[in-house]
Write a structure and sequence with these properties.
By secondary structure, this protein is mainly α. The chain has twelve helices and four strands, in the order αααααβββααααβααα.
């Protein structure tokens, strides 16, 4: 029974490995979004445009025939600079405003960055040729695994481990966790708001740069809409996992990435256009059953996020 079912769904080891790699990338994006939400209670809809900016930096470095390491360095500089500028120019002045105001501000920043990319680079996009070797497969039996898939899984695991150590073993990490629990009380106890928020935005920007490199290597082509659909899916995953805790949001990002890859490989080619509809329909069903999130305790409150 299992073999005919596997043949019908077209689920094999190749699909499973690719799904894990996609889930790892989405988990990194979920962490980046969740960190900013933890300290600011703000869903940053411009996160995808930060990734897009980093991808264009890689495309320009490739066009200028820079070595791969120089392109990656430029990507990190651009994404981190934009992240800190966003925090200083947009988030900080609007910090005392209602959440809806800050939410609309992130939409405005997202469309602004996308419009700048459209005017500057045009709608046709730019190719990236500096990382061709990472897209070559490694054959293990009958499974061909792209090098970038292995890199994505290893890098995601390393980043999540480093983040756990940062939050659990360092002073700034403890301050970030305290701010996520109760920002007002944390400030009364001596936690510096600007420092905590700046640190969260910085780490979020670092993760966005890493995701920009991985996604650019995987697609090898950058357009003004780069990473937009992925960001929407990850946001759904964060809500699916539960925004109460960073760990839950990360699991939600991985789960929706894994499910997306699995369904994409399982569905026949003629029906692949229904992937998004099926995926978001599944999210709605899960949230109807578990409104607080799939990986949260029943009755958990948003202020319990850590």
């Amino acid at each position: 029974m299992s073999e005919p079912l596997a043949d019908v769904l077209n689920v094999d080891w190749q699909t499973l490995v690719d799904s894990i790699g996609l889930g790892a990338v989405y988990a990194l994006m979920a962490v980046g979004i969740g960190l900013v939400f933890g300290v600011l209670r703000l869903v940053n809809f411009a996160y995808g445009q930060l990734i897009m900016a980093g991808a264009y930096a890689l495309a320009l470095a490739s066009e200028w025939n820079w070595p791969a390491w120089a392109g990656i360095a430029l990507c990190f500089v651009v994404v981190i600079a934009l992240s800190l500028a966003m925090e200083r120019v947009v988030f900080r002045p609007l910090r005392e405003q209602p959440p809806a105001v800050m939410l609309v501000a992130t939409f405005a920043v997202a469309f602004l960055l996308q419009s700048i990319a459209l005017l500057w680079f045009g709608p046709l996009g730019k190719p990236v040729t500096s990382f061709v070797s990472l897209n070559r497969p490694i054959s293990i039996g009958d499974v061909d695994i792209r090098r970038i898939t292995v890199v994505a899984i290893v890098v995601a695991a390393a980043c999540l481990l480093a983040l756990m150590l940062l939050l659990g073993r360092t002073t700034i990490g403890l301050h970030m966790r305290a701010a996520a629990l109760d920002f007002r009380t944390a400030r009364l106890l001596g936690v510096r708001a600007n420092r905590v928020i700046g640190s969260a935005v910085l780490v979020s920007g670092l993760l966005a740069a890493i995701v920009a490199v991985i996604l650019t290597v995987q697609t090898s082509f950058v357009t003004p809409g780069f990473a937009l659909s992925e960001t929407i899916v990850v946001l759904a995953g964060v809500v699916l996992g539960g925004m109460n805790r960073l760990f839950s949001a990360t699991l939600g990002g991985f789960a929706i990435g894994f499910a997306s890859g699995l369904l994409g490989g399982a569905l026949p080619t003629a029906q692949s256009q229904y992937l998004s509809s099926f995926l978001f329909g599944l999210v709605i069903v899960v949230l109807l059953i578990r409104p607080g999130g799939l990986f949260t305790r029943p009755g958990a409150q948003v202020v319990e996020r850590a």
